[in-house]
């Protein structure tokens, strides 16, 4: 029974190994990534008109907020017998105009941020294509080249597999199968295929979640603009802009990370033609997969969701602290 289970499991692994390259090839996977990213870009453009349905609601909420905003300030100036300052009262009108032209506001923001994405995407293009090409060549070499000492079986090989002289059974050729594929190489190639799929899946997952967040922020943008007119919700406007830019920066940061890993792989290819089948390559791919999960946190270093630049804020605090220490030392002198 255990022997039958072992044979069945071995056949299942062999069939999975043989069918996996049919579904995933390096060059096909590379082209599929670009196609999937283009689909996500088109999805955002197709979903953007949905924000127009909330423009009317945003105008109504914004009009009510403008009434309270202007009325409170005018009444405050009249109560203090002060001249009315009209310049601060233009804020509700500016936000109302932005609500009415909200699709153009999104297009202007995307147009300003798009060059960053294109510049970072160009950083990874050539190196990534070279890596996928070399991976494909290594996979083909591993699958086509037989291990030394293997070859066509002799015509009378069956009598050695069946010493009693009986006919060959359905599992009698398993010896040739395991000899041909070399169990160690089989497991290594299988793991290599898995880590390549996971490496690609993590990058696509980041871009998919990023597009999902951007669509939600764009659709609910008119409501955010309208609520920011009310006192107490004014910070929501700067927070919305900061979150939109922060989420948008996920893809450029992922592109930069992909460019770094691709460049490292391109340099490691000089180690020899067998690098992509070694354990070092598999370990590096696992490290890259873990690194991709830190992309949202790294994007937070550029611009924080609260609208404050984290790195700049820390540098300013360190500079001020250093200045105070220096001034205290000078005072003691």
From TrEMBL:
The chain crosses the membrane at residues 54-72, 93-113, 186-206, 213-233, 245-266, 278-303. Coiled coil: none annotated. Keywords: Membrane, Transmembrane, Transmembrane helix. Residues 35-329 form the Conjugative transposon TraJ C-terminal domain. It comes from the Bacteria. This is Conjugative transposon protein TraJ.
């Amino acid at each position: 029974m255990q022997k039958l289970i072992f044979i069945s499991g071995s056949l299942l692994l062999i069939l999975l190994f043989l069918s996996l390259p049919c579904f995933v090839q390096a060059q096909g996977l590379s082209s599929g990534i670009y196609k999937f990213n283009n689909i996500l870009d088109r999805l955002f453009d197709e979903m953007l008109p949905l924000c127009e349905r909330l423009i009317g609601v945003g105008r109504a909420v914004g009009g009510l907020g403008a009434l309270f905003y202007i009325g409170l300030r005018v009444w405050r100036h009249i109560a203090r017998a002060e001249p009315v300052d009209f310049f601060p009262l233009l804020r509700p009108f500016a936000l109302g105009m932005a609500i009415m032209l909200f699709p153009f506001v999104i297009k202007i923001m995307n147009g300003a941020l798009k060059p960053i994405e294109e510049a970072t995407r160009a950083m990874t293009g050539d190196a990534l294509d070279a890596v996928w090409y070399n991976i494909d060549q290594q996979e083909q070499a591993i699958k086509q080249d037989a291990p030394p000492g293997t070859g066509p079986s002799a015509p009378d090989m069956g009598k050695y597999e069946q010493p009693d002289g009986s006919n060959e059974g359905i599992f009698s050729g398993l010896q040739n199968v395991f000899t041909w594929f070399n169990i160690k190489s089989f497991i290594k190639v299988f793991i290599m295929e898995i880590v390549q799929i996971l490496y690609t899946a993590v990058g696509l997952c980041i871009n998919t979640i990023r597009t999902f967040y951007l669509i939600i922020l764009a659709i609910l943008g008119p409501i955010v603009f309208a609520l920011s007119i009310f006192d107490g919700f004014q910070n929501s406007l700067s927070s919305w802009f900061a979150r939109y830019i922060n989420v948008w920066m996920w893809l450029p940061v992922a592109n930069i990370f992909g460019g770094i890993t691709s460049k490292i792989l391109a340099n490691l290819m000089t180690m020899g033609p067998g690098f992509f089948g070694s354990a070092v390559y598999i370990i590096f791919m696992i490290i890259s997969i873990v690194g991709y999960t830190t992309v949202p946190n790294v994007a937070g270093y550029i611009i924080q969701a609260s609208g404050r630049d984290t790195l700049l804020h820390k540098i300013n605090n360190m500079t001020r602290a250093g200045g105070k220490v220096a001034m205290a030392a000078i005072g003691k002198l």
